[in-house]
Amino acid sequence: MNSKLGVVNLDFESSEIKRCVRALKEIDFELAYLALLTCEGLKPLSRWEKPLADDGLELLRQMGLLTKQIRRTVKTGKEVIETIFSRLPAYLELYEQRFENRPIDKSAQTRRFEGFLFGYPPCCVKEYIRKPYAANNLGADEREILFHWACRDCKITPVLLDAYKSIYNSLNSC
Ligand SMILES: [Zn+2]
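That is the input. Now the predicted structure with zinc ion docked in place:
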């Protein structure tokens, strides 16, 4: 893959990787996108909040990702299962230690910790906590491929965007 930033290290000519990515896309495009971003190290850890069957977990593992399922609760007491994946065992352990069997919350502390795990720029996390969805300079097409809300005049997001775009495009050609 050609990329300005030299990201996209996975060998897309490898029929094995292509097969995994295609199969993940069939489950959900966003899941395949998260898997690639995580494989490439742009996201240290990703969380999938919808149910994921064994075949989906197996595809993530075949791409070199470690997976874990985490039990959480919502306010009503109902149980939810989250799937997290990362190349790095320490990130899975950090997530598990902090969130396993705990209620889902949206506190500033949680947002800061999640931002760290998910690879969000700290400036954007800080701004989002202060004022969610404050105006920024991104176009709708750029917002669509990011998972964080960029702060105004962010210095990190434009660099990340190039890397995200190249992965997003490679997904479409997969
Ligand atoms: Zn920022």
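Helices lie at 15-27, 29-39, 54-62, 89-99, 108-118, 122-130, 140-144, 157-172.
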